[in-house]
Records
---
Amino acid sequence: MRKKYLMTPGPTPIPPEVLLEMAKPILHHRTPQYQAIFKEVNEGLKYVFQTSNDIVTLASSGTGAMEASIVNLLSKGDKAIVIRGGKFGERFAEICSAYGVEVIPIDIPEGNAPQAPIVRDTLAKNPKAKALYVNLCETSSGSVYDIKSIAEITKKTSTVLVVDAISGLGADDIQTDNWGVDIVVSGSQKGLMMPPGLAFLAISQKAWKAMESSTLPKYYFDLKKAKKALDKTDTPFTPAVSLVIGLREALRMIKEETAEKMFARHKKLADATRESVKALGLELFSKSPSNAVTAVKVPAGIDGEKLVKNLRDVHGVTIAGGQDELKGKIFRVAHLGFMEKFDVITAISAIEIGLKELGYKFELGSGVKVAEKMLAEG
Ligand SMILES: *Cc1c(COP(=O)(O)O)cnc(C)c1O
């Protein structure tokens, strides 16, 4: 017997109530029964995305929505500004390049957040840039970006602001309408407590208008087709019925908790995780740490890949390592979605045990002690 603990920034654990919903017999999607569910899900999504804009739901992983935000807005030869501070900023740039869009990169060192002046300058130098692509949480470095200040800049221009909130949604605040974010992209397997397979785009009027002139090729991800169907509470193709039914339950749970308390919970878990790893003598990787995931520098003399592997294969606790150049140099522990205090305490305990086994010198329990102190009440 080995109990498993999933503590990665996607996929994340799924509440039993949601799992049971998804086990129910399939419905046909062109029925009033399914339509009622889809309607409720659309309302629930608007609550989480903090918007009254249309939200398109696609049957794909999050990257499908990233691609949709490019092929529906842009045309070959267009310019797009892309903030690249890690793997997921790079992904936007890669998709742009694949479609012949000219990328104007704003490169920032991994673990840093983009500052408003450089965004303002780049936009001023490239007033023809049709869109600006940025992440809310750059999951690869555990960094949250200040979307509010970026939106203040794009709001006054014709440039469409597209934010990848795939991992950030639900953990790091994003006030789509209040801040003036044009497109917010997300996926199901992170803060929304669902399996992978659904992707979302919240789309403003400014973004819909900008889409009218786009000529990049698209078919399955044609958002105009999706919008036409959405206006009739329908989808152009067969939706992922069981996932949408599961999502209704997950969204009900979020509504019951309230968005305010959900953000407060993520902040509390993130704070406790950061302080606990610091108490172990470890350093955070990010200068702007996200409330979705904590990236931690692997201490000198310790093999970070071995730590992640041992925790998974010997102890049943799955955390994430570093990707690409950060392989072996950081580990990442998520406190995202269906998580509460004992999940953080378990994660810190597992990290302590794993580090001890690899010969790292520290007092066993010193991290857990901090986590328990910080999380005990509430
Ligand atoms: C997970 C993630 C993605 C990729 O999503 P997929 O569902 O794997 O396609 C993109 N961006 C960010 C910030 C992510 O965390």
Note: DSSP finds 14 helices and 14 strands in the chain.
---
Amino acid sequence: MSTDAADIQALESEHLLQVYRRIPIVLDRGEGSRLYDTDGEPYLDFVSGLGVASMGHANPDLAEALADQAKTLLHTSNLYFHPLQGQVGERLARLSGLARVFFCNSGTEAVEGCLKFARRYWYSQGVQHRTRFVALERSFHGRTLGALSTTAEPGYRAPFAPLLDVTFVSPDDPAAVEAALTDEVAALIVEPIQGEGGVWPLSNDVAEAITAGCRRSGTLLIADEIQCGLGRTGVAFHSATLGLEPDLMSLGKALGGGVPIGAVLMSQAVADAVSPGDHGTTYGGNLLSCRAALVFLDMLEHGGLERIRAAGDRLGQGLEAIVGRHNVVREVRGAGLMRGVVMTEEAAIAVVAGAQERRLLVNRTGGNVVRMLPPLTVSDSEIDQALDILEQSLAAYAG
Ligand SMILES: *Cc1c(COP(=O)(O)O)cnc(C)c1O
């Protein structure tokens, strides 16, 4: 097996489905907020595998727990009990106030679960016409057919039509959001901060319209917290910051710190509608992924949230200062350790490339936004370094 970067890329391009536009860096090691390529070159990682490496890379607590679990028991299927699902479920319920959890393996599967359980809820109420979904423009909820149906991006949708019947409304128009919630809608799905669409926090006006519309029409609310939840903004779930009271919540990304796991949290009322056999998955909540989630939740609950709040403030203040110094930056959006630096598309492309040359990994989302999504364990000095490199890259672009 070759460790040469060119050989690794050639092998992939011969055998893998060409569905990703990969950046030509081959990474084979990490430590904390650093990644190393095959030449041993270090990168400061402000992508964190799209918000997944929540505890940093090669986290010793996680590594030890996973090795121990691998030597004990990895998987049993959901035919039997094991000791860990209940423990993770109890802690997620305590953090969210939602009574019950269903475990799956990815974000998109968690969204599928939310959509199915919402349909199941109305079916068990005997309300058979209440099958439609409402989602927001700029939304991203995943790539499987149900989740894709609630994802706004036309380029992702068109090749796979027809999809589920979903009404998209503008997240900038509270009245339109309210009006879309009728007694034909099973559920409204929203990201409290839209991630892939360009780091757009929901406004308080829209959050109020959602609460009012759901209350009036009885529409269920699904909060997709896959990217913005689980501590990313310094609170357990960003929907709470907006005053939203979701009936269902989708989780993924940060929860396993790199081990694939997703989860659907739901109210007791929704859970009551679901019967044994209605839904399921082979891997969901196996011992390996639950063990990882327990390490993550330990980190979060034992000082993690406070630390993230402080780190998020530092990043936010540093970015606000940069806005003032660089005309090319229009604004900074987001919260905590989820930030989008808004510029032109041309500038965003150049700044991401410039940062990479200076060994900082950030990525572009929503076309013209440079997104910063570091590990939740990122240190103050790493934040300062990232801000420095971002500023150098902006200056280099400005000429
Ligand atoms: C990443 C993401 C998803 C999809 O998760 P996968 O694990 O890639 O399937 C869904 N919703 C949001 C908000 C996301 O950021």
Note: The radius of gyration is 21 Å.
